[in-house]
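A.,

Following up on our hallway conversation. Structure tokens first:
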């Protein structure tokens, strides 16, 4: 079967994952209408826009495959210890990167710690565009942002629901 599929130019590939909740029209509207407003206002105020996200990394995660003679299952030696860290990073369109590795769970307090460290590294206003993760919208984060006198602002990318439901 593999040879037949190969002959008709069908190959095994890792799929790209796309959200079924994304509303392409709403995304297009945000990109063409809302983001340009943020961009223009940031320019007027001397702010740099960063795009932020976080991710967890585990020591016992194995992505992909490895090679072995047919019938012999490959063995990858491991200690069995499991460690996890969280990484949060923000990058500007000019490639300016600010990141932090955190051993603790990522929540509102951890986000504030990151924002404090980030704001000490730069003198200009920091405008962050990010997703709707609960830590980004936490009450304690909003309270902290109010103490920065506008140096740090968070812009949450809108939820884009299925067509026919609540729009962005």
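Then the amino acids I'd put at each of the 168 positions:
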């Amino acid at each position: 079967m593999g040879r037949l599929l190969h002959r008709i130019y069908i190959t095994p590939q890792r799929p790209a994952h796309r959200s079924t909740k994304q509303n392409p029209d709403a995304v297009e509207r945000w990109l063409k209408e809302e983001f340009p407003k943020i961009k223009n206002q940031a320019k007027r105020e001397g702010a740099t826009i960063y795009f932020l996200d976080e991710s967890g990394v585990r020591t016992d995660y194995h992505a992909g495959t490895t090679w072995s003679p047919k019938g012999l299952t490959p063995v990858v030696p491991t200690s069995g210890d499991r460690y996890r860290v969280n990484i949060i990073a923000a990058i500007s369109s000019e490639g300016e990167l600010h990141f932090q590795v955190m051993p603790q769970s990522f929540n509102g307090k951890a986000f504030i710690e990151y924002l404090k460290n980030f704001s000490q590294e730069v003198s200009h206003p920091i405008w962050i565009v990010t997703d709707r993760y609960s830590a980004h919208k936490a009450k304690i984060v909003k309270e902290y942002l109010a103490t920065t006198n506008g140096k740090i602002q968070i812009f949450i990318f809108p939820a884009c629901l299925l067509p026919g439901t609540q729009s962005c």
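The radius of gyration is 21 Å. Curious whether your intuition agrees with the design.

B.
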